[in-house]
Amino acid sequence: MRLNQNTLLLGKKVVLVPYTSEHVPRYHEWMKSEELQRLTASEPLSLEQEYAMQRSWREDADKCTFIVLDAEKWQAQPGTTEESCMVGDVNLFLTDLEDPTLGEIEVMIAAWDRGVGVGTSLLAPLSSPLGVTRLDLTKFEAKIGQGNEPSIRMFQKLHFEQVAVSSVFQEVTLRLTISESEHEWLLEQTSHVEEKPYRDGSAEPC
Predict the structure, then answer these.
(1) Its biological function (predicted)?
(2) In this structure, which of 5, 64, 138, 187 has its CB flanked by the most CB atoms within 10 Å?
(3) Interval 38-73: pLDDT, tens
């Protein structure tokens, strides 16, 4: 999505940047993992297909993708590449034609070796002007495999509530409705996150 192509979200533990071609090789290596394929219900792609997917996601009006960077590594020294700091991604899909105020969120953490506690920072695209104002979203859903207990617990801690279970797809659907009180809570939880301009492929640590 071009709407977020110049948006960087800087948190205490993670930095969210637009998904660019620079990130594809490492993302491709992640997705060779059968465990990640299972957790994300994904099929393995060739490197060429992965580059094509990145270009498609950049242009599609219904997909908003951020790559998650380890903020400590990214800020450690000037010139650190984003690829070396990658730990996962966050996606917003706007695919419900009957309800344009609903966004589906997906979070994948593929390489995090310094503990937990990044959940609220990953909600930054929801609480920032990008999610609530520019995209005019008021509801968010997460569809998670029934066996992915860590992800289910993370979303429940972030006030998502279970609204459906699919025995066919072996997944649960969690939903967060952005009421006034929930919006205030989100803003409090992400008050440490700064929105900054992003220069394609060359954002600099602050």
Answers:
(1) N-acetyltransferase that mediates the acetylation of the N-terminal residues of alpha- and beta-tubulin.
(2) 64
(3) 888 889 999 999 999 999 988 988 888 999 999 989
